Amino acid sequence: MVDFNLTPEQQELVKMAEKFAKMEIAPVAPKYDHEGFPQEILQKAFELGLMNTSIPSEFGGLGLGLLDQALIVEEFAAACPGIACVVFMNELALAPIIKFGTQEQKEKYLPHFTQSPKLATFALTEHGAGSDIGSIATTARKEGDHYVLNGTKWFISNAPQASLHVVIATHDPSLKQKGLSAFVVENNFDGISIGKGIEKLGMRATPTSEIILNNVKVPVSNLLGAEMDGSNIALASVNRTKVIVAAFGLGVAKSALQNALAYSMQREQFGKPIGEFQAIQFKLADMAKDLEAARMLTWLAAWRYDQGLPSTKEGSMAKALATDVAMKSAVEAVQVYGGYGYIKEFPVEKMMRDAKVLQILEGTNEIHRLVIAKELIKSIKE
Amino acid sequence: MADILILGETRDGKLVKSARECVCRAQEFGKAYSIVLLGSNLANVANEASHFGAEKVIAVDNPSLGAYSCEAFAHAAATVVAQERPKLVLCGATALGRDLVPRIAAKSKGEVSTDCTGFDWDASGLRVTRPVYAGKLYALVALDPNVLNFVTLRPNAFGTAQPDPSKASPISNVPVDIQMNLLRCKVVELRREHKETPELTEAESIVSCGRGIKGPEHIKMVVDLAKTLNAAVGASRAVVDAGWIAQSYQVGQTGKVVSPKLYVACSISGAIQHLAGMRTSKVIVAINKDPAAPIFKVADYGIVGDIFQVVPLLTDRIRKLKQEG
Amino acid sequence: MVEILVCLKFVPDTTAIVRPRPDGKTIETAGLKFSISPYDEFALEEALLARDALRSGKITAITVGPPRNEEGLRTALAMGADAAVFVKDPLLEQAGTVYEADILARVIKNLKFDIIMMGKQAIDDDSAQVPHYLAEHLNLPCVSMVRKVEIAPDLKSTKVTRQIEGGEEVHQSTLPLIVAVGKTEHMPRLPTLPNIMKAKTKPITVMTLQQLGASPPPPSKIMSLTPPPARKNVKLADGDTPEAKVDNLVKLLREEAKLF
Fold first, then answer.
1. Residues A168, A109 share a domain
2. Secondary structure letter of residue C92 according to DSSP
3. Residue C113: how many CA atoms within 13 Å on its side-chain side?
4. Quick one: A265 and A202 in the same domain?
5. Nearest Cβ partner of C252 from B105, B135, B301?
6. Crossing angle, helix A230-266 and helix A348-358, to 10 degrees?
7. Helix (H) or strand (E) holding A248
8. Do A97 and A157 fall within a single domain?
9. Residue B200: pLDDT above 90?
10. Quick check: is A362 catalytic?
């Protein structure tokens, strides 16, 4: 039988994350949207145990499930998705090590992240390889006891602040997706340089840049899994973290609704609060119902993943729906605010800028629709 | 024996204002009341208290009561209560009142109604109105006439009694045995705080200025008014953007959100960005040259006038009022 | 090892919109967000800090109330309390302060403790009496409106700083003592994630009114609950001269708004 109640621990988790988001993140969100890196938020979140929650307890982490993480992420993203991304990016970056690393690799690298608030990146995307990871051009050439990596990764979140990178590179570009491998690359290896920060429309608190690999020597022991496993490793990691991105969408959608609702009852035109006019009420109702539906789908996907059930389809559904809802709600929130929605002194224009990239990263929503269709068709094919 | 016993709190050798508010209310009921004083060297304040129309003034004058101690004061007061057997004990809901009255009531097996903003005693009985849920609601409570009721009145919620030098109540000195060596908790130090202006988000009162102050040199005028009200100083975004005051003083959408008891808006137009930061203030007073300024739509009280005339006059008037005490 | 009891009340959150029920005597609780009463939270934080300062200690959170109070105890355990005691009964929803103090006394007289901490008032009834009535039942000293507590390492005495008009009083007291805490310098800590997980394993002792030999709470004396009057249109202080206007304004603020 279905029980929609959160456990007592999950309720405490949500309470704590919400308080932290309201007290610590929301007040500084406008500042970090403009400039700077939220170091003190990272430090405080770390001290509360909110970073690296998927690292298993034997390496000093909490080994939280995906649903638990989605609950925390929604609260953080409601306050600022850019800052939330800084704190939670490690969940994607370290997923390959947690899922596919050997005991030695896990023992070597994971404690590093539970002892202090260090950051890692998931270095997959390139200028010529977004949805098409088969076109990855960063090469890995085996030379004795190490691999030599050459190439440029692009649009990598947290790169300017990271101490570790999980890099997907190809042994043979002609093999497309089948030629990829995943490597753990320390930021202090010779030949790595971080490009200058990329200026983005939204999620501006997250520092983003290129990673340039120039004859970087990576020990053989830093290969994750076997050679040519790279595509599987990348996709399996994203298969988990796309639900986290859905939770980002929930947070933005929630914040858009709360702000639009409050504003609509304060702003008076034609002698009454605009929230009493049907046109506005329909917008609010749609925001609310779409958020609730997206949340239930996200929880379903997270629950299935935690139970060990197949969740590829549900995860893509949640990601596509929640992030589309976030964008739509943010745009409608700006509309509800009218002229005030367009100026930086009010919080909703930022939501619109932040929400857009959620429909693009970690698999564009178009790609996720293909994933869903593929699962549907698979289910009827003999 | 009088129906009402008033706990006459004193400070610096005088009755405090809230004690005189209790007297005023008792007078309005038309019932007999006595005033009890606890402390040492009470001769002067007992004399002051005797001019407030009480049936009698009871002075528990004991060197052991020189400094406050809940145990000693509660013991002394409970002794007087047992002797006098009033129907009702009144005190202000001051720091002392809040600490002492519940203890006296517990000793006397009575019941307390704290921080009352309304208080009536007529043929249908004793009723109090008091704020609950942090002031979001007001409760009207019917007190049980069969118990000894203790009521503490919210300071400044009632009228203040004035002394009548032509009347003099008898003063009786009542000895109470206080065994100091048995007291477990004593005051060892008294610290007066320096009058710094309170922090904006915690201040009970705020005086805020808008672009109409015309320049940083006029902020002092606003600060002076704030000082008389023991208020924090705030500013609209325009003042901050003009560089006349630091951003930490900004009240509004992108500044601080405040909810004080009193918010005085000097030459602030009332744009929605500013209102977002202060609209839940309990009392809003607006001073503005423009009678159509939006601030008057949310204000409770206001003056249409030039702040350069009104604000110094207001400062002066309030300062004089406070000196009269 | 210091033993601290912290009494908590679980009340509608400060941000909650409270509305009277149609009968006007109680509030509508359906859908309301509840949390630990803020001053009780400050008290719990003081207890946690005292334990940190003394390097060891046991903190027991106690609450008397309807079943929903369990959530408040879980939060207290997640913040760092070691154990909890819960006197649970739906009838306690309407219990008044005198009754509550009596129940607490029945529980506490069987417990070992050096100091009892709680908020100076709960933000539902705002009556600020339980600490003193409890102190009288247990024959203990009590200090209220406290902003700082310093327990001596030998656990024989404590220094307590109390807020008064225009300053502070510093009290020296023997232990045990009851301390009613107002706003202190220390913001209550957020529970860490590991502590939220650990809270599952900490014991909550549940008791009934019958076990304590207590009769049910007497009915409430509240006749009605009303919201504060809505903001009326602005009252402009009139007058022919600025002096006259100012005089009228001050009169209004004094007599009507009762501000000074």
1. no
2. G
3. 24
4. no
5. B301
6. 160
7. helix A230-266
8. no
9. no
10. yes
What letter represents residue C237's amino acid?
A: A
What does the DSSP 8-state code read for residue A27? G
Q: Which of C35, C192, C197 sits opposite A48 (nearest CB)?
A: C192
Q: Which CATH number applies to C2-207? A: 3.40.50.620
Domain final position from A85, A115, A145 = A115
Query: Do both A256 and A358 map to the same domain?
Result: yes
User: Is A252 in the same domain as A139?
Assistant: no
What mean pLDDT value characterizes chain A? 96
Task: Give the HSE-up count for residue A239: Cα atoms under 13 Å, Cβ half-sphere.
Answer: 19
Global confidence as pTM: 0.90
- Main-chain phi, psi angles of C144, to 5 degrees: -115, 170
Q: Chain-centre distance of CA C189, in angstroms?
A: 17
Residue for token digits 């009114």? C209
Structure tokens at A112: 């590093």
- Nearest-angstrom CA–CA distance, A141 and A217: 10
ipTM: 0.92
**pLDDT tens digits, one per residue of A239-296:** 999 999 999 999 999 999 999 999 999 898 999 999 999 999 999 999 999 999 999 9
Beta bridge partners of C158: C151, C173
CATH code: domain of residue A357? 1.20.140.10
> If you average pLDDT over residues B244-251, what whole number do you get?
92
Q: Structurally, how many domains does chain A consist of?
A: 3
Asked whether residue A57 is assigned to any structural domain, the reply reads yes
Using a CB-CB cut-off of 8 Å, the residues of chain B touching A338 are none
Q: Are residues A108 and A193 in the same domain?
A: no
Q: What is the pLDDT of residues B296-313, one digit of tens each?
A: 999 999 999 999 999 999
Specify which residues A129 forms β-bridges with. Answer: A126
Considering A94, A115, A136, which residue would you say is the last residue of a domain? A115
For chain B, positions 1-60, list CB contacts with chain A under 8 A: none
Q: Does the distance separating the beta carbons of B318 and C242 come in below 8 Å?
A: no
Domain co-membership, A242 together with A155: no
Chains in touch with C (3+ beta-carbon pairs under 8 Å) read: A, B
Least CB–CB distance from B133: residue in C18, C145, C168: C18
Instruction: Kindly report the CATH number assigned to the domain that includes residue A172.
Output: 2.40.110.10
- For residue A104, give its domain range: 8-115
Whether residue A177 is found in the same domain as residue A190 = yes
Assess contact for A87 and A51: CB atoms under 8 A.
yes
Helix orientation angle between C130-138 and C97-108, rounded to the nearest 10 degrees: 40
| Interface touch A345/B253, C-beta < 8 Å | yes
C3: Cα within 13 Å, side-chain hemisphere: 8
